[in-house]
Amino acid sequence: MRVLVTNDDGIASPGLALLARAALAIGAEVLVAAPSDDQSGSSASLVGAEWHDRLVGKDVRAPDVPDVVRCLAMDATPGLIVLAAARGRLGLPPDLVLSGVNRGPNLGRAVVHSGTVGAAFTAATHGIEGLAVSLASPQPDHWGTAERCALAVLRGVVAAPVGGRVLNLNVPDRPADQVRGIRRARLAPFGSAQAHVEVGDGGDVVVTYSQPDASADDDTDSALLARGWATLTVVNPPTSDDTAALPDVGTWPPG
């Protein structure tokens, strides 16, 4: 099995080494290819620097990535890196893309904005399994917990691929023995924070954020993560709905 490890936090992020080690633990051939700098919030954007019609990238040693793994720093978004890999521009196409481990959670419908999840979306649209992994703190203390959870999910993916979908894993930033388990979760209607847009007294648009409330029986990713669960969500990449009724547009050309 060939595994591509990428992220949106950049080649210097310690999260890459965790996923590289997890992939090596299942016997995979691993390539790390990540943005040269932070590309957070890039979604599945296909932006990159080119030189003579080639993506700009160089061989580097990413922090703590095992020496047997080749590492590329690329002046590109994670979505473009995955696209290049899927089309065989970084060697043979991968069978699986691991994206992360991200600093901070990627929750709810806000995953559409995430470069971490966007990389996995790009993989899925090219028929490649995609797993996005995030640790629920912007300055994590418990990277090892994310590695253990990612390895558990990765072994499950190898045994039973999800085929054309994306797995989104969010892990609490706490010791592994304080995580309640890995639980399936629905996407919350918001992200890790809920945005409120209002018009101020002077007519300016004011955006504020609040922590969303969740009931004790809420099974969304945001609520379960707050209660100490690692959450696993199956997300469909963009696809058309060919069965929904269309609005009546009348005759053409319009009168």
What's the short version?
Keywords: Cytoplasm, Hydrolase, Metal-binding, Nucleotide-binding. This protein is α/β, with parallel strands linked by helices and about 260 residues long. The chain is built from five helices and 13 strands.
What does this protein structure show overall?
The chain is built from five helices and 13 strands. With 255 residues, it is an alpha/beta fold. It has one domain (2-190, 216-235): Survival protein SurE-like phosphatase/nucleotidase (Stationary-phase Survival Protein Sure Homolog, Chain: A, 3-Layer(aba) Sandwich). The N and C termini lie far apart (59 Å). The model has no long low-confidence stretch (mean pLDDT 91). Its EC number is 3.1.3.5. Belongs to the SurE nucleotidase family. Residues 3-187 form the Survival protein SurE-like phosphatase/nucleotidase domain. It catalyses: a ribonucleoside 5'-phosphate + H2O = a ribonucleoside + phosphate.
State the main characteristics.
255 residues; alpha/beta; Stationary-phase Survival Protein Sure Homolog, Chain: A; two-stranded antiparallel ribbon; 5 helices; 21% helix
For the sheet with most strands, the description reads: 9 strands, mixed
**Helix fraction bin:** 10-25%
CATH class: Alpha Beta
Question: What is the number of E strands?
Answer: 13
Strand order of the largest sheet: 5-6-2-1-7-8-9-13-10
Low-confidence stretches: none
Write down the secondary-structure element order: EHEEEEEHEHEHEEEEHE
For this structure, what is the CATH homologous superfamily?
Answer: Survival protein SurE-like phosphatase/nucleotidase
Under CATH, the topology can be stated as Stationary-phase Survival Protein Sure Homolog, Chain: A
| Anisotropy-based shape | globular
- Number of continuous helical runs: 5
Radius of gyration from CA coordinates: 19 Å
Name the structural class: alpha/beta
Family: Belongs to the SurE nucleotidase family.
Catalytic activity: a ribonucleoside 5'-phosphate + H2O = a ribonucleoside + phosphate
Protein name: 5'-nucleotidase
InterPro entries: SurE (IPR030048), SurE-like_Pase/nucleotidase (IPR002828), SurE-like_sf (IPR036523)
